[in-house]
Write a structure and sequence with these properties.
By secondary structure, the protein is an alpha+beta fold. The chain is built from four helices and four strands. It is elongated, with a radius of gyration of 40 Å.
Length: about 120
Amino acid sequence: MNNNMNINAQASIIVSKDNAIVDKTDIMAKYDGNKLEVVGENRGKIILMQLSNEEIMDILAIPSSNLGLKERLKMDFRSRKKKHTKHKRRKKEKKTKKRSSSIRKSRSKHKKQPTVTTLIGEL
């Protein structure tokens, strides 16, 4: 492995609920290309860890789920498949009603009843 590689990382994690701190964790890590040293503090306990490259690879090889990637994606992004069928639509013929002139004449003979606004306007 490359012995000239140095990676330093530090993280602070604060979990809060309703503006009150529920959990707080601090982690510092140092990787020199051969081993990873991790120092952390959680709930008053100090955690020290040293991992070799082989142990790091073993941890990364542990599957996060028994399901494969395709199955997990299908579960996360379920979509309902819709069948698209084409329907021919027939144009409906519009029936037009012709009013006879006698109906028009009979309506015009009746006076319109005055509305409330018309009556108020006349006062």
